[in-house]
Write a structure and sequence with these properties.
Layout lengths: L5 H12 L5 H19 L8 E2 L10 E9 L3 E10 L4 E10 L2 H4 L3 H19 L4 E7 L3 E5 L2 E4 L16 H11 L5 E7 L1 H16 L8 E5 L3 E6 L5 E3 L14 H9 L9 H6 L1 H18 L9 H4 L6 H9 L6 H9 L6 H33 L7 E6 L1 H5 L3 H13 L1 H4 L2 E5 L3 H19 L5
Parallel strand pairs: 2-5, 5-8, 9-12, 12-13
Antiparallel strand pairs: 1-11, 2-3, 3-4, 6-7, 9-10, 10-11
This protein binds beta-D-glucopyranose (BGC).
């Protein structure tokens, strides 16, 4: 195949340009995000602003905690030691994966699998009685630190009859069935809260006067933010559900939203444009469409192009990382998917993938700015954002793209006051700190928002 005709070239350029999120549009999104935080706290809008019933750690928390981290295609059970001074050590960890069928079945078998994994790690470590922290990375309305009523799930999960049930109680019942009654659930939290709390624990453990993290951001299979809103407490925004995206959506986003049954149309609009679960699918849709309308990408015979969600988001990172002139690794990747490509086509895939990832990064910056302005309208103080997740950690230059967008929005000087701290694998470690904070709160007899 040779280079495209002029009109096909224009079709391609138009598709890439459709993913551009300009600064004026981003600024409007940031303002709307900020307004929706206020609205959410008052009970309206698309941001759920869920209570967490936890508070910032001192950095001196200690103890051995059993942790469960369930938030995507995988779950983990582990044992974590906190030794104060911001020190944390994962003593043991075991990972479970779930099938598509399990994601649509009854909740009990899933909780039994998780309890089984807990049994194995505590058995191997000789742990008897211990507190357990449960990181449940789906929307849940907490009523106490150890009571979390499930809302509709995200990331492709829809367990039968889960909505409205207390996931802490379900896990406790499964632990009892597994003969683990001495492992006592002490706290349930979202992964964004775990990232925020872990960053604060580490910073304050090193220096008692250090400022705690203001925001916890997860950018992996799903996306979400937690923020310390002072008097309103630490809140789980469930920002993946933010709906102020009309200014930047492409026909591919509109179709993806409409055609997916889980999460249903209209739900998780922000997440559907940003997170790892969706970026590969957006690229697949764009390639399939351009394959029909141009001389490029006639690849519909490949299952990776023909099947929904078969183009893995991790491919975007791999494609972006290929620095060779001929895009040799992109070639190898496409061949492994049964696709033979021209050099121009490979550069085309790369340009589209980069545009999709760049839009995601810029939207993340807008959400962060909306949150930072809610906390500190004039952005006068230094702020820390704790970040974790496979997209942030895995896509080459993602952090740089977010920072560049922040600088576009508020200028380099103010953007420099915002620190992004990558707290890799924060969930289990953060969970342990949350359990220790919950124990301290319990012994003081207080409850935070
Ligand atoms: C969930 C959030 C979670 C985020 C990151 C979203 O799909 O709704 O609760 O924090 O993914 O894991």
């Amino acid at each position: 195949m040779t280079a495209m005709s002029a009109s096909a070239d224009a079709v391609f350029a138009h598709a890439v340009a459709a993913f551009e999120a300009g600064t004026a549009v981003l600024d409007a999104i940031a303002l709307q995000f900020q307004a929706q935080i206020a609205q959410g706290l008052a009970g309206g809008g698309s941001l759920k602003m869920l209570r967490t019933f936890t508070r910032q750690p001192s950095g001196r928390e200690r103890g051995r905690v059993v942790v469960v981290d369930w938030g995507g295609t995988k779950a983990r059970a582990g044992v974590v030691d906190l030794s104060g001074g911001g020190e944390v050590r994962i003593v043991a960890e075991m990972t479970l994966t779930f099938s598509e069928a399990q994601k649509r079945g009854a909740p009990e078998p899933v909780f039994d699998l998780i309890a089984g994994a807990v049994g194995q790690v505590v058995g191997a470590q000789g742990v008897g009685a211990a507190p357990l922290a449960f990181i449940y990375s789906y929307p849940a309305r907490l009523e106490r630190v150890d009571r979390a009523v499930a809302l509709a799930s995200t990331k492709g999960w829809r367990l039968d009859g889960l909505v409205g049930r207390d996931v802490a109680e379900l896990l406790t019942a499964a632990l009892h069935r597994a003969g683990l009654a001495r492992v006592a659930l002490a706290a349930v939290a979202n992964d964004t809260v775990a990232a925020l709390i872990l960053q604060s624990y580490q910073a304050r453990g090193r220096d008692a006067g250090a400022s705690p993290a203001d925001i916890g951001l997860i950018l992996g299979t799903g996306t979400n933010l937690a923020a310390d809103l002072g008097p309103a407490g630490i809140r789980n925004l469930e920002s993946g559900n933010f709906d102020g995206v009309a200014g930047v959506e492409t026909p591919y986003d509109v179709a993806l939203d409409r055609e997916l049954d889980e999460p249903p149309p209209g739900a998780q609009r922000f997440e559907k444009m940003i997170s790892g679960h969706y970026l590969g699918e957006i690229l697949r849709r764009a390639l399939a469409d351009l394959g029909q309308r141009t001389a490029w990408f006639h690849w519909s015979a490949s299952p990776a192009l023909a099947t929904a969600f078969a183009f893995d988001s991790a491919y975007l990172s791999r494609i972006a990382a290929d620095r060779t002139a001929g895009l040799d690794d992109v070639d190898a990747l496409l061949r492994s998917l049964g696709i033979s490509s021209t050099r121009e086509e490979r550069h085309g895939v790369r340009a589209l993938g980069a545009a999709i990832a760049r839009r995601a990064a810029r939207l993340v910056a807008a959400a962060l700015l909306g949150t930072l302005r809610f906390i500190d309208p004039r952005l006068t103080d230094r702020r820390t954002i704790a970040v974790d997740g496979s997209l942030w950690g895995g896509y080459p230059g993602f952090e740089g793209l977010v920072r560049e967008a922040l600088a576009d929005l508020i200028g380099r000087e103010r953007a420099a006051r915002v620190e992004t701290a990558f707290v890799k694998d924060s969930t289990s470690a953060g969970a342990a700190v949350i359990a220790a904070v919950a124990a301290a709160q319990r012994s003081e007899g207080c409850s935070s928002a």
